[in-house]
Design goal:
three-stranded mixed β-sheet, six-stranded mixed β-sheet, single chain, alpha/beta, 591 residues, 29 helices
């Protein structure tokens, strides 16, 4: 079972490559089974039996919450049992539901699992077809497929890789500079300053409030510090973070269980953090083979006490040959077992930390381009977008709304070092309409005013709904117009935007059907200018409501902006800190 991360854009190409490389008959996706739970069994049976909805809901609500709760568990509830015994309809529903509980209700396709075999997969496992999959499906779930001896690979789409790719594209566009992100320096001073100040919002793995508070205390100076922090910031080893920081800064003495352990534990200041350290210690101290060291790692990670107890004797005997007394060997083994329960795989932590470092490097060296890419990949999450816009403002980077003369398809960075909202990100606009507007702008210059925009654009590509969204989002604000004008109605109740579309369409038809005169010259078709209506502008609240509708977040400001002074001067914590967990904040105050 191998997991591989790809950027979101490239995942389909990888699956296509695998099919071409190994053959369509040797590659498949994996089936998933949706099972009936205790509550859903009751509701389904009650519906078929025609039981009143109120009674059905009453029975279901008495079933305890939890993914693995069965109706047998519910029967242990006294109130449930009384209802079951006193009401024959309830008894009948529950009895039938108990036979269905846990059975397969539906099938689906595993989101990222792909099976690859040496021969036609139907020789090994039963296959099926699914309407929502280009590949056949193995009719076994993932864990069983592995037992059948087939290779299961998870092709995961990792948003961070897509963010990095977009940021590099923006850098290329702005500076005409191609950066190979895999060859950047891992000793960049700007990047470590960013970590030391805890300014890691928007970066991979290190952006939570708890993590940022620890980074300010750790003041990392090397990639090893970050790898260790990434591995320590989890339930269990988190309690050792204060010791790790104190030892790094010389506040606490670095101690090793034995001089032979110093080389293994040097990077982590004598604290066992990684599974690889457990393996290396068993090899160095007790002369374990690599195979036996891996067996010990697995046993400690999965708390297999029979194997741990069996290998203890071998560890003590091996340690004796290196001059380590039995009592000390026992003590070291106990410490290894304790860390082994939640020890992290260093290779995993290192790979993800290097990826995290790349995002921090981009934020430190190309902040506007990086934050534009981050915003572009979080459009569907209002809270995150608002959070990242606040971070942009803290960094002194303005985030501007869409503009038909400056926006690209996605978020971009303009000449003034400001982030500009992308046209295609607006609701109802879409990529083809946005591209059509941009292509016309690139071919024939910027739009001089609203009439010029309508004169030059094709309404088959840019339809009425797209134009409404563009207007509501403020895309025409820099064309001597304001948003309310597009939605102003005349005496006949006709909206100005509709009149403008009709007028422009008629003019375009006339220009396209010009007839040659008797003298062989083309008649000069003019485009009469339509005057924009005189009406009051929308107030801020009106703008914000419509921006939220078409963009998914507030562009011109925030409904709470009028309370900014109170928030700045009287609040002590942010809601996000509570979301990250008060325990993390509490631990973070120990040093």
């Amino acid at each position: 079972d191998i997991d591989v991360d790809f950027d979101d854009y490239g995942r389909d190409s990888v699956i296509e490559y695998v099919i071409n490389q190994y053959g369509a008959d040797k590659v498949s996706q994996i089936i998933t089974f949706g099972k009936l739970g205790a509550k859903s069994s009751i509701r389904d049976v009650a519906r078929v039996m025609g039981v009143e909805l109120s009674l059905s809901n009453r029975i279901a609500k008495m079933v305890p919450e939890g993914p693995k709760v069965t109706l047998d568990d519910a029967m242990r509830n006294k109130d449930f049992e009384e209802l079951y015994n006193s009401n024959p309809d309830v008894k009948k529903v529950v009895d039938i539901a108990r036979t269905l509980d846990g059975n397969v209700r539906s099938t689906g396709v595993h989101a990222c699992g792909v099976i690859i075999g040496k021969e036609d997969l139907s020789n090994y496992v039963p296959m099926a077809r699914a309407k929502d999959s280009i590949l056949p499906l193995v009719q076994y779930e993932g864990s069983i497929v592995e037992k059948a001896g087939l290779l299961k690979m998870d092709f995961l789409g990792l948003k961070t890789l897509s963010i990095i790719k977009d940021a590099l594209d923006l850098i290329k566009e702005r500076y005409n500079k191609s950066i190979d992100i895999d060859t950047i320096s891992l000793e960049d001073e700007k990047t470590y300053k960013l970590y030391q100040k805890g300014e890691t919002i928007g970066t991979f793995q290190f952006e939570s409030e708890g993590m940022r508070s620890w980074l300010k205390k750790l003041k990392p100076t090397h990639i090893e510090d970050l790898i260790a922090m990434n591995a320590l910031f989890r339930p269990g080893p988190m309690g050792f973070i204060p010791n790790f920081i104190a030892r790094k800064h010389g506040i606490e003495k670095v101690e090793y269980p034995h001089k032979l352990a110093e080389q293994v534990l040097q990077d982590t200041y004598g604290i066992m953090i990684y599974q690889e350290q457990i393996m290396l210690l068993s090899q160095r101290l007790a002369n374990f083979t690599k195979g036996k060291a891996d067996e010990l790692r697995k046993a400690m990670g999965k708390k297999k006490m029979d194997i741990i107890d069996r290998l203890r004797g071998e560890f003590i005997e091996g340690s004796k040959t290196n001059g380590i007394e039995k009592a000390l060997a026992n003590e070291i083994y106990d410490t290894m077992a304790k860390f082994g329960e939640y020890g992290f795989n260093k290779s995993h932590s290192a790979a993800y930390t290097v990826l995290a470092y790349q995002t921090a490097w981009l934020k430190a060296n190309y902040p506007a381009e990086y934050m534009a890419a981050v915003l572009g990949h979080n459009l569907n999450d209002l809270k995150k977008v608002t959070f990242y816009i606040s971070e942009c403002r803290r960094m002194g980077i303005a985030v501007l709304g869409p503009d038909v003369n400056e926006s690209s398809l996605k978020f971009s960075v303009n000449k003034e070092y400001q982030i500009r909202f992308g046209l295609a990100a607006l609701k109802n606009v879409g990529e083809s309409a946005a591209q059509s507007i941009i292509d016309e702008r690139n071919a024939n210059g910027i739009y001089t005013d609203v009439n010029d925009f309508f004169k030059r654009n094709n309404f088959r590509n840019v339809n009425k709904r797209a134009l409404e969204s563009l207007a509501m989002g403020g895309s025409f604000d820099n064309l001597n117009s304001h948003r309310a004008q597009f939605f102003q109605t005349d005496m006949d109740g006709v909206v100005f935007l509709e009149k403008m579309i009709k007028h422009a369409s008629q003019m375009q038809e006339k220009m396209n059907s010009q007839q040659a005169s008797l003298f062989g010259e083309m008649e000069d078709a003019t485009f009469p200018v339509m005057e924009l209506p005189d009406c009051p502008r929308w107030n801020l609240d009106d703008k914000l409501v419509r921006e939220l509708d078409v963009a998914g977040f507030y562009i011109s400001g925030h409904p709470l902006d009028e309370f900014s002074n109170e928030v700045t001067h009287f609040s002590t914590h942010q809601i996000q800190e509570i979301a990250d967990g008060l325990e993390v904040m509490k631990v973070g105050t120990d040093l």
